[in-house]
Amino acid sequence: MNILAINSSVSGDASVSRALVAEAVQHLLEANPDAALTYRDLGDDPIAHLTSATVSGVRAVAETPEEFGTKALSDELIEELRAADILVIGAPMYNFSIPTSLRAWFDHVLRPRVTFAYGAEGPEGLLPGKRALVIEPRGGLYSEGPNAVIDFQEPYLKQLLGFIGITDVTFVRAERLGYGDEARAAALEIARSQIADVAPRIAGTARP
After folding, report:
1. pTM exceeds 0.85 for this model
2. In terms of residue numbers, what domain contains 166?
3. The total number of structural domains that make up the chain
């Protein structure tokens, strides 16, 4: 089994998502000690955003050195993703959505004719059979109540992953982190409990 763990927080050691991703990986490795782990930190080692000088390396045919460099990076990221049986993503909510570093990663791995294609029935994801565990720290409460309509984080991640064929996705939310120490402690306890519960199941049912 291969695990790809991705962090996207810019908060360093203070990051909640970074700590919860580490716990999730630990549980997955305990359930499957022979698993191989690939780790990518988009917060400390960000991927450059696509520009007019580089976008053809992903969306068209590379011709310039800049475009070939972008294509090589896209190839590398896609191979990491293709090799993974389980994907663990730390995706804190920034301004109601995802960190720009994580968006840049998706911009490089959502690649026509490589990770998705259009056919007679519409778009088809070309990376099926994988499972994803997404950790979502949030300062407020967005899974229910009036703020649910401004949650552009979880639906967006579900759409991006599903577009390339990853439809078996488990979301673990740590909400109300900004509501004081007591609410923060309760949110972390709930998230850790959920991770401990779902991680072994995800590891045990991963594709061979």
Report:
1. yes
2. 2-204
3. 1
